[in-house]
Amino acid sequence: MSLEIVQRNLLNILEAVADAVTISSATKRCRLVAVSKTKSAEMIESCFSQGQRHFGENYVQELEEKSAALASKCAEIRWHFIGQVQSNKISKICNSSGIWCVETVESEKHARLFDKEWSKHGASSSPLRVLVQVNTSEEENKGGIKISEAPKLAEFIRKECLNLKFDGFMTIGSFDNR
Fold it and tell me: How far apart, in whole angstroms, are the C-alpha atoms of residue 9 and residue 135?
């Protein structure tokens, strides 16, 4: 897919999002996170040049490589980690340039590790935003904690993790459970 097509499609989506926000009085904030997994740094940079600032990666190695490659060219980029968190990769996520949000926290253990690593790598700027991933469809093949456990984890992050900012819940629903 050419960069021009991607840029044109991105502008159409951003316009549709802006229109939806304008129409809806209930919407207080809306943010498009462009999932950039498997996309080149050049393609991400072209979207950045069109105004897109938030990009999601679900592989730590891609996040590391792309954030390093784009750190100077796209200084205002905001990376979201959207993949399954592995304890041994948390330091690498926190050390990635421009990391802004982790959308897949599903345990106190991982919250503690992110809190500890963020204090070393990024806490001087601002707290790391985290979302608690909730498996609302109760599908065994999807990540996330049970709905009943979500408030407890959110409260743990709010009270115990001073370098993190609980920013909400994340879920991917099932088409079968409408």
Answer: 31
